[in-house]
Amino acid sequence: MSVPADAPILTTKAMREAEAACAIQGTSLSELMELAGAAVADTARRMAAGAPILILCGPGNNGGDGYVAARLLAERGASVRVAALAEPVTDLAKAARAGWSGPIEPLNGRLAPAPLIVDALFGVGSSRPISDELAVILGHFDDRRILAVDVPSGVDSDGGANWTPPLSADVTLALGALKPAHVLLPTAPACGRVLLAPIGISASKAIGTLPKPGTAKPDATAHKFNRGMVLVFAGPMRGAAALSAAAALRAGAGYVVLEGSERAPFSAIIAESDERFGERLNDPRVGAVVIGPGFPAGDELLFDVEAALDSNKALVLDAAAIDAALPRLSETPRNAILTPHEGEFARAFPQLYGSKIDRAKAAAARTQAVVIYKGADTIIAAPDGRVAAAWPGSPWLATAGTGDVLAGACGAMLARGGDAFDAAVAAVGWHIAQAARIGPGLVADDLVRE
Ligand SMILES: NC(=O)C1=CN([C@@H]2O[C@H](COP(=O)(O)OP(=O)(O)OC[C@H]3O[C@@H](n4cnc5c(N)ncnc54)[C@H](OP(=O)(O)O)[C@@H]3O)[C@@H](O)[C@H]2O)[C@@H](O)CC1
Ligand SMILES: Nc1ncnc2c1ncn2[C@@H]1O[C@H](COP(=O)(O)OP(=O)(O)O)[C@@H](O)[C@H]1O
Ligand SMILES: [K+]
């Protein structure tokens, strides 16, 4: 499973707007369909490697792409058959259908398969889950190589409805831009390897996939304080804060101070008493404060969160510290990153609706903070509407303590100064890259070791 890095993601509404803008600039929808069909044909040819191809066409423009691809494949001498679920209903699909001169087989339980199946049944126009009857017919093909056109049929491309498609794709060819369904659960795993065919649509990158992580080499004139100084509050479970502090150091902070002394993970981490630590909140060199890891809700946490908020420093708020800070967060806009997992998000932001992207955006707007809504399909959202999707992360991260590591990495990236969204994106990228490097057997401590 993979998605292209730094690629735009468009909802259906945004896609229709981009299509309309294309038409105004002089590229007709039929030209777009020709480009889309050509990209499908190219990908199918490569996947089939000379073996026969069966294209399943639906009634809308997704089916239209299928007919165009069939015509182009036949022109190039490929062995290609077409089966249709229904007659085309759009003018574009009718025209594309008219361009295919071969036979059209009915899509029913007697349809003979082929080594490569091209799923051009439904794309961004999917309006409901696939019927049980069609799901059974498609089930006959699930041992074949599957190329899905735009999205696997039967997903809600905006990711709001949790429909799961009956056929999982080996490759999904996204047309013009990626769609939320390619990067959100439960549909992303069914997309397989996602490829992007640009087809000339100019897509805004307000929502996109993670960029490739950069190597943030320190400036030649770097000094430990200007690389970023991070304060980490330790709650009663000191191991969690120790992981965050170690992660901050590993992720590039020049100086890390941890409250309390028993569990400083590296000799380079300065462990300080409550009083001395409290004074540090006024230290102008401190670039970011991390609070929440290892800190259950309670008076002690509330007290420390208040102190952190009063300091006006950039903040990373994790776990119970998110709830504790919520009432005051939007009061004074500041650089802040919240890192809730699913349960913490539901508790802090009940009654948000829509896809995970919609909900993360709403939470960011409400708190005026950057939200890293964690999980296998992590979403990072900024108050100004920017969103980055981290699918596929590393499943080796599904182990206790990795969230504490992410909070520390966020502290390091934030302490350098600059934009909190960029810091969050860099931290999530660093986290995934570390996990990918370690792989099997990963435990959270490994992420902060050499
Ligand atoms: N964006 C671009 O720039 C370009 C986009 N292009 C392509 O167009 C695609 C979008 O096409 P589209 O809008 O015509 O919708 P599409 O996905 O074919 O489906 C609509 C039809 O399916 C039906 N239907 C839906 N769900 C169903 C179900 N569960 N079970 C049964 N029927 C169901 C629905 O019926 P209805 O809901 O109206 O009853 C309607 O008839 C896009 O994904 C891309 O491939 C490229 O060609 C060019 C550039
Ligand atoms: N299946 C998965 N694939 C990718 N990343 C995952 C997966 N499961 C968990 N993660 C990541 O691991 C981290 C777990 O954080 P969290 O749930 O807060 O754990 P903890 O509180 O034990 O530290 C998050 O960054 C999350 O995005
Ligand atoms: K499809």
Approximately what portion of the residues adopt beta-strand conformation? 15-25%
What is the approximate shape?
elongated
- The CATH superfamily of the largest domain turns out to be Ribokinase
CATH class of the largest domain: Alpha Beta
Q: What bound compounds does this protein have?
A: ligand NPW, adenosine-5'-diphosphate, potassium ion
Task: Describe the strand arrangement of the main beta sheet, using strand numbers.
Answer: 8-17-16-15-14-13-12-9-10-11
Work out the helix count.
13
Domain unit count: 2
The first-to-last residue Cα distance is: 28 Å
Features:
450 residues, alpha/beta, Rossmann fold, UDP-N-acetylmuramoyl-L-alanine:D-glutamate ligase, ten-stranded mixed sheet, seven-stranded parallel sheet, 17 strands, binds ligand NPW, binds adenosine-5'-diphosphate, binds potassium ion, YjeF_N_dom_sf
Structure description:
This protein has 450 residues and is an alpha/beta fold. It folds into two domains: 12-204, YjeF N-terminal domain (Rossmann fold, 3-Layer(aba) Sandwich), CATH 3.40.50; 229-448, UDP-N-acetylmuramoyl-L-alanine:D-glutamate ligase (3-Layer(aba) Sandwich). The protein is 35% helix and 16% strand. It has helices at 12-24, 29-48, 61-75, 91-98, 132-139, 238-250, 274-280, 299-310, 320-329, 342-348, 356-367, 402-415, 420-438, and strands at residues 53-57, 80-84, 104-106, 116-120, 145-149, 171-175, 193-197, 207-209, 229-232, 255-259, 270-272, 286-291, 314-318, 336-339, 370-373, 379-381, 387-389. The strands form two sheets. Strands 8-17-16-15-14-13-12-9-10-11 form a ten-stranded mixed sheet, with helices on both faces. A seven-stranded parallel sheet has the order 3-2-1-4-5-6-7, with helices on one face. Helix 5 (132-139) links the parallel strand 4 and strand 5. The longest helix is centred in the N-terminal third of the chain and has 20 residues, at 29-48. The chain is elongated and about 80 Å long. The two termini are 28 Å apart. The model has no long low-confidence stretch (mean pLDDT 95). Bound molecules: ligand NPW, adenosine-5'-diphosphate and potassium ion (K). Adenosine-5'-diphosphate is lined by residues 341, 374-376, 378, 393-395, 397-398, 400-404, 406. In the C-terminal section; belongs to the NnrD/CARKD family. In the N-terminal section; belongs to the NnrE/AIBP family.
